[in-house]
Amino acid sequence: MSFEPSTRYQKAIEAFTAAHTDDPRPSSTGEPYNVLYHRRLAHFCRELCLAGDNTPSEALLLAANCQHIRRWEHPRSDFSEGLVGYKTWRTKTNRWHSEEGERILLASGYDATEDADLIARFKELVTKKTLQKDDPEMQLFEDAICCVFLENEFDEFKDRYEDNEQKTIVIVQKTWGKMGPLGRGMAVKLLDGMTEREKEIIGKAVGAIVTTRLLYCLQHPVPHLSRLQRIHPRAYFKLQFAGERPKPFRNGRRCPHAKTQEPKLYFCPSKMCRGKHHRFLARILT
Question: What is one Pfam family matched by this protein (predicted)?
Fold first, then answer.
């Protein structure tokens, strides 16, 4: 749902920007890094909403202008190395960002009672509490964050791990895995502004993902087959592999060919729409 920027909204954005200007880290444009980061994050949020025929919500734009507020005051180096230290740092900083953002919103004229839902949504976005697949707006926000990384931070990571290309490839793969279709489409557009080396690394990372998924589909064809649905278009299917450790099916009966391995047997109970039930074995050569 679109909104008309209010006085309190403008005041909050100005307060966020004022906090970003204190960032001692310079950006590629010479301005404080946090100023550039949040300006581009808000830009990508608008562009992705436009690509999806939507308009950005007030909570989304507020979160985009506040996501890493004063992060330099809580550096990663204050926490232990490794995955546990990283997750602890990320959890604590996200919570701190949301609390600092809420304080600025209240000081800008937002009411803790009347605007409770908006503030709660703002904090959800900043802390990224909900799963992206269950929350389209959260997925869009994650897409925008990933686009900012590819546009402004990927070059730094590439140089940092210049002697370890595989590390950079893994970082790109994790970033790509977080993105939805809109975000990936935007990421492809960003390739035009990248160097040949950056394009090469991204190509290797994404190419490896596609190859891995293709091989998985070839080695495990049953979840990807639609032939049974075409044979019985009005049935609901659930294929189960009849392997070494068979599971009981309806009425406690087990598949009689449970230990047969070549060709692999899959038991398919189907429930017809008209109330009729059928069972059959599907032989799939893998």
Answer: DUF4202
